[in-house]
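I have been asked to look over a protein record a colleague put together. Alongside the sequence sits a line of tokens, each denoting a local backbone shape. Please read both lines and tell me whether the tokens look consistent with the sequence. I do not need a full report, just your reasoning and any doubts. I have pasted the whole thing underneath without changing anything.
>
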Amino acid sequence: MKYIDEYRDPQAASQYAQAIARLTTRPWTLMEVCGGQTHAIIKFGVDELLPKEITLVHGPGCPVCVTPLELIDKAITIASRPGVIFCSFGDMLRVPGSEKDLFMVKAAGGDVRIVYSPLDCLKIARENPDKQVVFFAVGFETTAPANAMAVYQASQQGITNFSVLVSHVLVPPAMEAILSSTHNRVQGFLAAGHVCTVMGYTEYEPIAVKYRVPIVVTGFEPLDILQGVYMCIRQLEEGRAEVENQYTRMVRREGNDPARKLISEVFQITHRKWRGVGEIPQSGLALSEPYRQFDAEMRFGVEGYTAEESSDCISGLVLQGIKKPNECPAFGNICTPEHPLGATMVSNEGACAAYYRYRRFPAVSVSTREA
């Protein structure tokens, strides 16, 4: 397929792997931030092409995975109420709450709908004026512009039976939390290309300087990732710590200015809890004061929920790059995609789901991997 196949060329991948091997003189540990990158690495065996000195660990860049347990419980509570149409992207419906998930609410008769855009919810709200329509606004900076636009248009159009349950998180504070941890082992980052498409990468530059860590904005295809690794290792070997852009076909340093302005109008920065990790200061988005009337937590009175994670699940350690999924005793045993203990086994971008799909059995050659 044009624009895809050229980034999956086995010969080019082999050449990059050889170049990385020639460049590498000592052990290095890199973290890919995005769950989409994790999925590509495991699916295509990118890590298996690298020299043994290079270790890739998986970061907290799966928005489904880091949505806190109590927020899932809030979503379930709201969706279970009569007179509510609860809308979400499909990947959130199987994320386990304390006792059940949104699919179970739907099976019990709740009006839970999968939508492909938050703007779809405005149409649903106009068509159902006697119902309260709630959208589960989950994601990193990537999905924030569309969610902000839905709230903005609801305000402009006077749609009063629409609200959002917000769980937006921000990448740079999470990277700083990892780097400042006493358990940190990360020496370089492959930053999430789609986040930087919206936000640019100026926010990463102070992090690179402060922690002396190279950060390479990277795409999602095998050759993107291999080139990102090469650029990151080259910096480490040369003693540099800068922000570089591998994903030049999509990302500009300043990002998407109209999208950033819309986000800053509708949302404000707040502290946010990350599932399995805990609260990270200034790491989330909440509705700004002019748009607080669209806050589903306030509208339905569910602000004060708390919940405890399963003690059998180590997803927090996986999301921080401290453990890998197959190091969890529950992996593939009591925790499977059909019966997940944590969100990292549910999401298509979850590291545990990727390992379950592609790493439960002995490795096969790169040429026979699923394309």
Notes: The radius of gyration is 21 Å. The longest helix spans residues 222-238.
